[in-house]
Design a protein that fits this description.
- The complex is a heterodimer.
- Chain A is α/β, with parallel strands linked by helices.
- Chain A has 11 helices and 16 strands.
- In chain A, the strands form 3 sheets. In chain A, strands 1, 2, 5, 6, 7, 8 and 16 form a 7-stranded mixed sheet that branches. In chain A, strands 4-10-11-12-9-15 form a 6-stranded antiparallel sheet, with helices on one face. A 3-stranded mixed sheet of chain A has the order 3-14-13.
- The longest helix of chain A has 21 residues, at about 430-450.
- Chain A is globular.
- In chain B, helix 4 (about 75-90) packs across helix 5 (about 90-105).
- Chain B is elongated, with a radius of gyration of 24 Å.
- The chains are: A alpha/beta, B mainly alpha.
Chain lengths: ~525, ~150
Amino acid sequence: MTTSKDRVDVLVIGAGASGAAFTWRLAQAGIDVRCLEQGGWTDPSAYPATTPGWDARRHTDFHPDPNYRRLRADYPVDVSESPIDPLMYNAVGGSTIHWSAHFPRLRPSDFRVRSLDGVADDWPIRYEDLEPYFDVNDRMMGVSGLAGDPAYPAKPPRQTVPIPLGVLGERMVRGFDALGWHWWPSDSAILTQPYNGRAACNNCGPCDLGCPIGAKASTDVTYWPKALARGAVLVTGARVREITVSPTGRADGVLYHDETGALREQKARIVVLACNGIGTPRLLLNSRSPRFPDGLANGAGLVGRNLMFHPYASVRGIFEERLDAFKGPIGCSIISQEFYETDAARGFVRGYSFQVARGLSPVATALGGSGNQLIPWGADHRRVFDARWDHSVFLAVIGDDLPEAHNRVVLDPALTDADGIPAPTVIYTLSDNSRRLLDHGIARAIEVFRAAGAIDVVVSPLLRSAGWHLMGTARMGADPRRSIVDADGRCHEVPNLYIIDGSVMTTGGAVNPTSTIQAVALRIADRLVREARNR
Amino acid sequence: MARVFEPGTHALLRAVLNRLIPAGNQFPGAGDVELLPRLDEAAGASPMAIRMYVDGVQQITLESERRYQRRFEELAGAEQDSVLRAIDQERPVFFESLLRQVYVLYYSQPIVMPLLGLEAGSPQPAGHALPPFDPALTRAMGQRPPFYRRPPQ
């Protein structure tokens, strides 16, 4: 084993959405910070959208599911006890490489669900605490959209104008307006005009296959160049095996495998986890020692518990006319939060958002999209395919997924990654509340499609390949018996160990979480910077 | 090539592909575009997949002989469909895997893309033109009072 001679001040594990933002903030303040990332840099010029046969690569080496993709940087996940498959990408930029960049914030009520609705727990921080960090993050990532959304407290002007809606989006606006339901152009981390040295989107379509022109805000093109310019060090191909602890119970570094598989040691004064809601509990559970026999920071037995995904249902509306549905960012056009807040008359607590996306790609049309309902083979194939291709709109119902202790990440007794590190198993059950909430959303989605002029709808009650949002498995809270980290991301049990990714989310809200995850990471970074200055 | 599918099975496979996605409405059948090399590659992904595909194709031959005493590629369309439906019933994992692979490979073929109104090559660098967002669309919604819940401080 090789031990690095230098002890860094801050060691961040994971170079994705939160790790990049956090590292940038520390480097900007002149703090000695190093990041270990198990993947490498991706080459935007080689992204699928630049190559013939691009649509097939969503099902091979660019699949969002590591169990299908099976690259060296990936680790397998046992999903045999989950109706939802976790999705992620392991590289510099993390899952922002393949995300669709829909960029809403959690809303003020999301931070106080116990006080307001009597369920789950309140966060130890409020929306107002995160507001300045949302704004910094928006400037760093570059957000297209429009201020003035009545679903939110006022936001500053967005960096660029909203994503073009096209025929498809304007059709859906007609439906929402006819019913008097809320809609607004989505906040999207995709530039519609040049900004900060990055190009504007040219509406090529498949953002989930990587953005070759850098219009989509993946953190390899937003935060990382600035962090590296400020002196941050990024080590790629470095897969952390465990966090080591000192005799006094403090984190003192990590053991990691380099890209040749050799085991190395890196010492650090502060260790920060940014490995996502699956990878972070996996690493904590793999970090066992006589002092922490059940895994690091797991004295209360909570590491890995309270996994939240955001269960998704989808409704696809089929229209008579062609919609140019392949033009424009695949996941972004408009959002509706008409049914976001609790209404006891609906028979469930909390609510959901509608995310209106675009049409499906040709391959996805044939495969029935995330709903996995293949269109028929044989004599009827051409008729059904032609009726759907470029005639359909994908609308996602994103449900608030309340934390439940039995939904969890554990270590698999047999499965390992390429370095022999135990892999995670995901155990998840959809709650009755979530089922009722999704059913309500499906019924309302059908209404809005009818109002928009759809001639048919295709319903998928629960999307399996939709575990984009990995949250809650090392939750934030004031009470060490009910949470892993405090309001500043510091582990209750290990004071120099911080967690900054989606694991810390106390509740998940009903929107894509990346904007909030990054704002939380920036706030934690800011607290650390202040602490360092006061030392 | 021929890692999984022996040359002797290629005529049968082309006939199968042409029943899964038949020609029509100016589109070629799946057996008439060059899918076999890539299908072979996909079928060879693991020893288990190779076994499944080899056995599955053999089963199509056997089922054709059993039902009609002829080779699959010699059967009429309706007869071929009945054989494939039987295979779907008896070997659902193989059949769905084959169907998925055929859909993925066919609808990403450069020869098929232009028939869908897309570039034959790739979406970049040309992209697509779209008219800019029209702010007038939000005029009514922008008048709606804020409706988020603000928790008590």
